[in-house]
Amino acid sequence: MQALLVFLAIAALSLLASSPALDPSRFPSLARLAASGFLFLLFGVVLGPSVVGALSVDDVDHLRPVMALGLGTAGVILGLNLEPRLLRLLPRPVYAAALAHAGTAFLFVALPLAAPLLLTSHPSLHAAVGAASLLGAAASLSSGHFAVLAYRAGRMDRARGLGVSLLTMLDDAVGLAVLAVALVLGAAPSAAEGLGLVCLAVLLGILCGALLAFLTHAMNDPAELATVTLGMVALVGGAAAYLRVSALLAGVACGATLALVGGRTVERVARALGRVERPVFLVLVFLVGCGVYTRDWAAWALVPGFVGLRFLGKVLGGRIAQRLAAGVLELPPRVGYALIAQGGLALCLVAEYQFLVPGGLARRVLDVVVVGAVVNELLAGQAFRQVLTPVKPRLAPAAVDDVEVAT
Amino acid sequence: MKGAVTRLVLLMVLLAIISRAQLLRADSGTSVTLAAGALLLCGLFAGKVAKGFGLPRLTGYLLVGVAVGPYALGFIPGEGVKGLDLVKGLAVSLIALVAGTELRLGLIRRVGARVALLCAAVCAVTFAVCFGATLALKPVLPFLAPLTMPQALAVSALMSTVVVSFSPTVTIAIVQETSARGSFTEFLMALVIIGDLLVMVAFALAAGMTRASFGGGFDIAGLLSGVGWELFGSVVVGGVLAVAMLVYMRGVKRELPLFLVGLSFAAAEGGTRLHLSPLLVSLAAGALIVNLDEREGERIHHAIQRAGLPVFALFFAAAGAGLKLDALVTVGPAALLLVVLRGVAIWFACRRFAPANDPRLKEYLWMGLISQAGVTFGLAALVSRTFPTFGPQVEVLIVAMITAHELVGPVLTRRALTASGEVRTDEAPGTA
Hints:
The structure holds 2 protein chains of 2 kinds. By secondary structure, chain A is an all-alpha fold.
């Protein structure tokens, strides 16, 4: 029954999201949440066990296979975006700029919040460090969808829009690296065992990626190609969930391996995955929302700190990034304000962490990041206006709700 | 062919590595997604290998499911296969939707009466033969031996009703695979669909009689309302679904395969929860759409063909993985005897009662009626749940029969279609 409920909820929300009731000119915030998929997140919170209870804890537990599939898919898509040739072309200051804005936000959030995490939940020191790192990692991530939107609407020139998008794409690597470290520390009784599990996830992904490249090589029928792609994504996510290792990291390794050795098939695989990206993402964020426990007052108390410190970190990090990338990458003035939107990867990180690291602290991290992500999305619209400088429109203005989900 | 074998072997090696790696972890996580991915990929390439050997792809899906499933190599845990029940329901709904779009009023007028008569005759003969054989086996069947004669009669009738059932899913999958078109194919499809409707009604009556013979009382009103709800309720819900689909197709006009998969999923899940027949719900929806708007019916047909490959490959590979090979060992001889008798009964009934105007019906129709799959599984599970004293043993016997029928049925169905001369191509893209 839970699966049917989820289907109906997603179907109802899809209709709502595409209805004129969510006219961006009348309800800009709501339309923004719907476009970014975060409306589904809120819907998950409301329907989940801790608010209305339409889905019980057992129901959410039974939907873990769907969650594993979603995380695996997100990972493969991220991995495919790690285009090795493009990454090799980027000059070093671009990496330095990306690291600066992501690292500053990470430090601004992780260091101050480690203390309250340690004090409020009495965990071991390394558990608190792992949880604080995850909060920092989630804070370091940004979504570039506002920049894309502004460029499409002719409110930002192309070079600046691309610059912001590039920075936000590169900070994904920081988040994933921190997740790996946090899993090394927290997913097993010893760090060595934790390292072994992370390596197992990566190895699994590499094997699956190489096999996917071989399976799709010389495959011409689009239906067969889509079937093999979906099957391999399910296999990599499912095998990771079965072995209790990170589906997200395995997926990234799978996608990156395919991008490296896949040749001509990479584009076709990416296109096949693109067709299911949005539905999978919406179901994933809905399920992440269902996992939120709204009665954890300590989590609510941490949210203002998370949002405020991240904001400061991004603004300051943006300034540093601008200095480092000067002359190499064109960035808009006050670029930090363009990096406030958080994106879906942050949700994937904390969902994965909650899966693999037992204890209430992981759930608290999830609660803080989910609520924080929604607040950041709402703040991002206002903050982005600080970045915009009027430019002559080169394209016909596109409707705001044309935007795809930012993952 | 060589490439498909290489790819299948590599996939199985990867699965073996994963199942070995599981030994490193004291507690394993959920295995449903793993089962889905593995069966989908292995099924797809096994289908290609089977095609290379001149067998239906469906046989490849089934055999690879058996091979990697929990009862043979054990690469996929049983819980993973069990968790794919949702996919099975979805596949049955999709297949029934396609079948419904074949039920045009013109066709029903043309062959309806002849199909119904032949169907009744085939079902009656098969039921009589299986009923007699089961009763004769009373002393050796452990679940029948201790029963009184009235109870044994009722249980034999119940079991024989289930044994009679056919498999619209297999028939339609093979028809899609071979792109068969013509009067023989129409006759065969109509017969398996009507046969299963007949079996559903007969099953409800037999279950009521069995309950009465075990002291539960014979509640005619309850029985009739149950059957009525399952049949007419399904048709009404199917009608509502048809309207929803037509509104969507005329209004939205995009992402039709995704929409149909979602709606079929809802029909399967919701139908089961409401004690309706998901098969009949989707069948009614498809039939109503094609008779209201033929063009939209065709669109549904093509859309499901596009979305059908992964669903069919996964469905039949999961069905193969779920086949309990150990059941064949324990009740094998009795099951084998019943399989042979059922086959002979169907062959005899077709030879004797099939319309004489088309000699192909007398000659080849019986081969298309041997398969058993989803509906038979469902009824066997229902017997097990409803009658916990003897039901689980009946289920084991029926599942053993299904195993045998699944392995030979698709091959025979394809042979029937080929022999009838209505197979157009073996390369229908995106089909099972």
